[in-house]
Amino acid sequence: MSRSGGGRCQQGSGLSPASKQATCAALKDVDLAGAILKRIYGEEALKAGRVPVAENDVQAFDQRQVFSKFSAKPFTALQDASMAREAYIFVPKACKEGRQCKLHVAFHGCLQGGATDQRVGHTGNLFAKFAGYNEWAQANNVIVLYPQIQARATVPLNPQGCWDWWGQDYTHEGYHTISGKQVKAVAQMINMLAGGQALLKVPAE
């Protein structure tokens, strides 16, 4: 993680408290997002470095809109896929002004969805705000899409809010294929953005 508000390095691992503190301190300034982006796009594509961004530059959108493209009951379909109603997107200033931009999809880990990962002094959604992608994206004209899974204590059971990556088929027997509910939903988000369609904001209750 590139920000001190990042991952949950204190949890698990079997290390002593002192060792955990040392590990967290060592990882605090690791620019993992930058390393990932450079690996994908190359050093030259990210030559502008990174710049600060504000928390409220990350905007929420309604994932039900995505399911409405292929389901007559979008909210039911969204729940069956264990996906949250609200997801997030970061759009750099230049992209908003019409410049052609790249699109990067960032998948959160277990316990890192917006409704799950909340800490004192922040408004939740810490992965999308502090994973480190947005600082690089702002400087290098990359839109970052943060689709979201929600934790569920009912069927489909997903208590830690994980993407269906381990093969338990909790969403669909073809969870890892283009027929998988989550894969299909994210592909639809990408297609909408690539086609110039706006992602709708979550309406007020």
Which tags fit this structure?
205 residues; alpha+beta; four-stranded mixed beta sheet; globular; disordered N terminus; AB_hydrolase_fold; Poly(3-hydroxybutyrate) depolymerase
Structure description:
The chain is of the alpha+beta class and 205 residues long. It has one domain. The protein is built from eight helices and four strands; from the N terminus they run ααβααβαβααβα. It has helices at residues 17-27, 32-41, 64-67, 74-80, 93-96, 126-130, 133-140, 181-194, and strands spanning 58-62, 86-90, 102-105, 142-146. The protein has a four-stranded mixed sheet. The protein is globular. Residues 1-8 have low confidence and may be disordered. This is Poly(3-hydroxybutyrate) depolymerase. InterPro entries: AB_hydrolase_fold.
